[in-house]
Amino acid sequence: MPDAGMFAAADQIMVAAHDLAVVAPGDDEVDEAVRLVEEAQKRAGV
Predict the structure, then answer these.
(1) Which of 25, 32, 36 is CA-nearest to residue 13?
(2) Which residue in 21, 34, 35, 44 could disulfide with 9, CB within 3.0 to 4.6 Å?
(3) Does the pLDDT of residue 7 top 70, yes or no?
């Protein structure tokens, strides 16, 4: 697992996306999770 830099940020974003998709009870929640992850990716520059 990456421990520094852009790869670490990208790894954490992907883990967060997976976790949100697993716990989201419906399509609307998954759509919101995807939107939040996309925003995080833009802020992190990955």
Answers:
(1) 36
(2) 44
(3) yes
Query: What pLDDT does residue 4 have?
Result: 66
CB 13, CB 46: distance < 8 Å:
yes
What are the C-alpha distances in Å from 10 to residues 21, 27, 28, 31? 17, 24, 24, 19
- Token pair, residue 16, equals 């967060």
Confidence at residue 32, expressed as pLDDT on a 0 to 100 scale = 85
Quote the tokens at residue 20.
């949100």
- Measure the CA–CA gap between 20 and 41, rounded to whole angstroms: 15
Helix (H) or strand (E) holding 10: helix 5-23
pLDDT for res 3: 66
